[in-house]
Amino acid sequence: MYRNPQGSIEKTAVTVERLAWGGKGVARAADGRLILLSAPLALFPGEVVEAEIRWKPRHGEGDVRAWITPDARREPASCPVARACGGCDLWEAGPHAPALKKAMVTDLLARSLPGAPAWTWLEAPASALRHRIQVHWTGRDLGFHRRGTNALVAVTGCPAAAPVLSAALPRLQEALEAKVLPSRPQRWELATGTPAGEVFAQDEQGRAWSLEPDGWHPTTAGVEHRLGSARLGHRPGGFFQVSPAWAWEAFGRILAGWDLPPGTLYDLYGGVGFFSALLSGSVQRTVLVEADAPAVAWARRNLEGLDAECVAADAAEWLPEGLGLPGDLILLDPPRAGLAPELCERLQEAGAEDLVLVGCDGAAFCRDVKRLEPAWRLEALAVADLFPNTVHVECVAWLRKAPEA
Hints:
Layout: E1 9-15, E2 18-19, E3 25-28, E4 34-38, E5 48-55, E6 60-69, H1 97-112, E7 120-122, E8 132-137, E9 142-145, E10 152-154, H2 163-177, E11 186-192, E12 199-202, E13 208-212, E14 215-218, E15 223-227, E16 230-234, H3 244-256, E17 264-268, H4 274-278, E18 285-290, H5 293-302, E19 308-312, H6 315-318, E20 329-332, H7 341-347, E21 354-359, H8 362-371, E22 376-384, E23 394-401
Parallel strand pairs: 4-6, 7-22, 17-18, 17-20, 18-19, 20-21
Antiparallel strand pairs: 1-5, 2-3, 3-4, 5-6, 8-9, 8-11, 9-10, 11-12, 12-13, 13-14, 15-16, 21-23, 22-23
Helix pairs in contact: 1-8
């Protein structure tokens, strides 16, 4: 049977068999070779699409250019730049987007953690809009990066963002055009608190402005979130949950459903104290470790009145041998790249017998669960859709010390 030579490009019609992690569509060539498809909009299994395929030694990688036989469930996107903007992945899936995302997660876990216990899926509510967005200013246009490039898609609003952020985009562009704000080309972050209200803008130099009725004013105030009985603040531009109220609810439901110990919480990669505050009513004391010193300063404010120690240090470097005692809990919420191998090795000898691992990249998360073996056994697993209309999820695992042989 004829095979396309490596490096060749072919435009052909293929059928999407299933969805893989990262939103990839899986198809096959006539000779059985695997094809991984990327698309600017949601893909449904069973759809026939026209794709431009680049052939590798053993498989093909394709970009969907058109839908030949679209699924009947497709709906028009409510975003006018859905096909071009790189911010969202699942436009045109409508109410079926959560089911498509769950199918991607199912594929990942079945392949990466085949022995995992039955897992819980938390679907995002319609209210889970983004309270942080990053936009780019070229000196003339304001918008998001075009999918797969650094070219700009100009926007005047964003249906995935909280309405106050969407409404602030024209106000930001007006101030940039008038040179009221620094007008050199750069990235800007817009953020609002919880509930959504005051809007902050931060430039790449870390300078912040708040939006008032008469325009933008320099500010040193923090972004504030009222989540349950907690009051959490952070600097504009500082890391925080994208949909804070939904994240608080989702993580709260997950962790409350597990029989976690009540001793000392070691909150590693703790940021400004989100998980320390969330678990404050169920643990005796907290040790929070975070490399970003400004975030640690905010954590001390956020956890004031609690028995909490906040340490400015890299978690992998800080982690001592034999961390904790039976009855303590280690919680790790690392960056997208996941845990360092040496940290996983030191955790093999931890004194604590319970560990919660949080991961925003499913592939790295599964890798880290396996790296924590053989000392740690996967007890429970949950996946929450904290990033609606994208292919991203938050994975959470409860691991317990495995019995010694």
